[in-house]
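dude i think i finally got it to work??
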Amino acid sequence: MTNSLADSWASEPLGRVAAPVREQVADRLRSAITGLQLKPGQRLVERELMEQLGVSRTTVREAIRELSSEGLVTVVPQKGAIVSRPTRSEAEDLYEVRATLESLIVQRFIERGTDPEISDLRRATAHYRKVTEEHSDDMRGVLAAKDGIYAVLIAGARSEPLRQLIEQIQARVHVLRAASLSHPGRAMEAVEEMEAIAAAVAKRDAPLATALYAAHVRRAARTALADFDD
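look at this
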């Protein structure tokens, strides 16, 4: 894997917008990490970031500190910042948290979601199948389509605490999700699992929908964790 940012990620200098510069830098890097342009273990060299984004060293350090607090970046003494690479135990815990939180979101969606939102969920699931079937080699596109399902569920759940909690871990599991879906056959299995979940939601069968969702996350966990060394 290359250690040069320029070889893996190129970004235009920041423009003048209302958000603080530190926040803009953090957003750019967060997007590059969750979009798999910057991969686990990639070094984030301050000088290269300063040159690409046209910002000061202080701004870069503030942005890296913010991403470090989110678990996306790890600062190694004497070596600098790298894109975080979760350990096996961390990945196991992240998936268990996902299984619990997202199952609860499904339950709240069933309790609070409207019929039009259930139709939105069907459309998002159909779009996910279409993208996966037609662009299976575009993992960023597949993940974006699946994120569309999450967006519908979170909106219909109408729970700000749950939304905040899931957003805190979604970025950290994004790379793990990509690893899972990249396994042969897993992407279409995931589509079928999400379709079964959407069907249970449409019937407002909370016990079945939440059980299917937890099983979906744990199946993804087994696939992703197969890539870790014991």
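The chain has a mean pLDDT of 88.
im so relieved honestly
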